[in-house]
Specification:
single chain, mainly alpha, 2 domains, two-stranded antiparallel sheet, elongated
């Protein structure tokens, strides 16, 4: 029951985040109709509204000024709802030992850890790490013809939300590579041969396998530990 509840929190948070992005895009498009350029991103928009909006507000009609205030109110409500869900997930993570162990892995944050634990529990529902990775859609599709096997792009089957979480985490690791980590050498060598997106997916696959192994074997994070 607790796992299902946490997954529902994730689903609601994901929906609210998409609503916030759509509202911000409409906000920028509305002001663009009057030649007013608004910075991209929620944080930059919030700063712009606090510092620069008053300068251009007089250029808008009274109808549009009221409309903008309504949109601001809706945006504040969405951000409050998202913040409340974040607090719930923070509380769950701090009180769940498995989440605390997963968060020690570079590239796995609070959202990914709580989503993984809520989705697969102790990982016993999968026989091995590759099976879990395949369930996430992070393994290559295969096409066989004439006795030859050709590996294509990732299958993108299974849990799209978790797959996105792992890919975001892998992208963050690649962006801030720490030379002291063992995985950095592997990433550097792979980056020299393959496209950046391929490297990100490969690292996401590795992170997913590590997460499953830690849950299945009840282990703490060890970068020397080889997952099979």
């Amino acid at each position: 029951v607790d796992q299902q509840s946490v997954l529902l929190l994730h689903r609601e948070r994901d929906g609210l985040t998409k609503e916030r992005t759509a509202l911000i895009n409409r906000f920028r498009a509305t002001l663009a109709e009057f030649g007013i350029v608004v910075p991209v991103g929620a944080h930059r928009l919030k700063h712009w509204m606090a510092t620069d909006y008053s300068i251009v507000e007089t250029e808008l009609s009274p109808i549009m000024q009221r409309h903008i205030r309504r949109m601001q109110g809706r945006l504040r409500d969405l951000e409050e709802f998202i913040s409340e869900l974040d607090q719930e997930l923070d509380s769950y993570s701090k009180n769940t030992e498995a989440c605390q162990r997963l968060e020690a892995v570079p590239g796995i944050g609070r959202l990914t850890a709580t989503a993984v634990v809520a989705s697969i529990g102790n990982g016993k529902c999968f026989m091995n790490a590759r099976q879990f990775s395949a369930w996430l859609g992070l393994v290559p599709k295969q096409h066989s013809s004439g006795g030859k096997t050709c590996l294509l792009g990732i299958s993108k089957r299974g849990d799209a939300y978790l797959r996105r979480m792992f890919i975001h985490g892998a992208r963050a690791v690649l962006r801030h590579m720490n030379p002291k980590r063992l995985v950095t050498n592997w990433l550097s060598e792979l980056s020299a041969r393959r496209h950046r997106n391929v490297v990100i997916v490969a690292l996401a696959n590795k992170l997913a396998r590590i997460a499953w192994a830690m849950l299945y074997h009840h282990r703490s994070y060890d970068e020397h530990y080889q997952v099979v």
